[in-house]
Amino acid sequence: MDNLTSPRVVKSILDKHGFHFTKSLGQNFLIDDNILKKIVEAANLSKDDRVLEIGPGIGTLTRELGTLAHKVVAVEIDQRLIPILKETLAGFDNVSVIQGDILKIDLVELVHNSFDGKPFKVVANLPYYITTPIIMGILERGLPFESITVLIQKEVAQRMVASPGSKEYGALSVAVQYYTIPRSVAKVPASVFMPPPKVDSMIVTMERRKEPPVFVEDRKLFFDVVHASFAKRRKTLLNNLISAKEILEGWTRQEIEELLWECGIDPQRRGETLNVEEFASISNSILYKKKSKL
Ligand code: SAM
Description:
The chain has about 290 residues and is α/β, with parallel strands linked by helices. It is built from 13 helices and nine strands. S-adenosylmethionine (SAM) binds near residues 28 and 30.
């Protein structure tokens, strides 16, 4: 079997099919065996595992997944890669490729049809231009994922694992850390891709939490508060919440200030200093106050 991490082999496959990279689809194919091994090692796969891969490219990672896991479903947007994948994945009876846009596909249906609704792992070298919507889409849909192991842009990885008070900490950090325990596994240089992207990358693995780390009465309200608190990073928490009319319609400045003090939070703090517990406390208090106002 051809070694798909060999640049020479990749080039000859692409040439044979007259394939040219489309930059806007984030097509940077992995050409490093060591990094490939690190991704699958971090994903900790066994022969019982079902795996969803996003963006198989020419099937480099897909073949490793197919060897290690029970079943692999890979979603690839680029039609031109489908005939290539047919060739490179020939003989992998446990691997199927779905042509489509991961942001448009009904993932609940996919998990139901392909995995019988059973737990699955996500493993991917993601297209960088849509890393955040892909991850958020998986986290927020209530899918039975066990873990997400991805190779992504370093800056996004740093935001996922960031702690309160750091400049990388934001809505993405809170969402990822609410649903999972993220861990950065390894830094990855641009030279391991064909063509090399302009940024460095990182392997991150996110282990699903069995229970959320805090009690949140209304999850949508919680995330609305999180987004509102980070809306303008230079503004205070109070001013960001005052601007969040969709959450606090009809509330006076004084009422919001009082609510924050009741939660033990100084209204002059900035959103990026709040931890998950504090966001939960604010959103739960807003809900109770709203109910008592009725
Ligand atoms: N897995 C391959 C590898 O490691 O060499 C390719 C990774 S490449 C960074 C990203 C892949 O995602 C490309 O094959 C690209 O065509 C595909 N892709 C881009 N946007 C997509 C989308 N919206 N849905 C599904 N696949 C997408």
